[in-house]
Design brief:
Rossmann fold, five-stranded mixed β-sheet, globular, 208 residues, 4 helices, single chain, alpha/beta
Length: 208
């Protein structure tokens, strides 16, 4: 009798152990959905930028300081109107070596070095006649510091498209007119830079 009861008890306990539920499967962590309008990281593009600087070291040119500022701001305004890139104007002057070093330290920003130069050899250092002024520009590529493009524009020059027919600034010794002409020369330099770098820009020129 005792053996019969022990057998029944063991069978009942064995049946209960077999009815235990299996452990629950782990719940997978949901993948976050991308924010609407946000590009995947692989498709995100870096921002293009420009740093516009002036080489003012030619102390013997005899130009008013406002001439340098006019050309500098003209170029910067053209870049701002012609592209959505970030455009910064350097507050301190730069030499060519400084500009190359700066460009090498940049990832996506070009460094533009401008220079207001007297194209007439042997002119007076006072330079009362501004008809021989030219705005020279050199563009240094980010990371490498190599020259991407360079050239010069003339204040008050008559042009057919991108070709300069001849230099010359009317109103030779008019300082205010000289500033306005240099600003336009700076704007033309900015347009040429965008064209050389194959960056499209609006057909409507910036207001003068």
């Amino acid at each position: 009798m005792l053996l019969f009861l022990f057998a029944l008890t063991a069978q009942a306990q064995s049946g209960r152990r077999q009815n235990n539920p299996a452990p629950a499967a782990p719940v997978p962590t949901p993948t976050p959905e991308p924010t609407p309008g946000e590009k995947p990281k692989s498709q995100q593009t870096t921002d293009l930028g420009f740093i516009v600087a002036m080489d003012r070291r030619d102390t013997f040119a005899g130009f008013p300081f406002s001439f340098y500022d006019a050309a500098l701001l003209g170029c910067a305004d053209s870049l701002k109107h012609g592209t959505a890139a970030q455009v910064d104007v350097a507050q301190q002057e730069m030499s060519r070596a400084d500009a190359i070093k700066k460009a090498k330290n940049e990832k996506t920003t070009y460094v533009i070095l401008l220079k207001v130069a007297n194209q007439s050899m042997g002119s007076s250092t006072t330079n009362s006649n501004y008809s021989d002024i030219a705005v020279e520009y050199t563009v240094f590529a980010p990371t490498t510091g190599k020259v991407s493009t360079s050239g010069h524009t003339y204040p008050g020059s008559s042009r057919k498209g991108p070709v300069v027919v001849g230099p010359g600034m009317p109103g030779s010794n008019n300082t205010i007119l000289g500033e306005q002409s240099l600003k336009r020369a700076g704007e033309e330099a900015g347009d040429r830079i965008l064209s050389a770098l194959h960056i499209s820009f609006p057909t409507t020129p910036p207001s003068h």
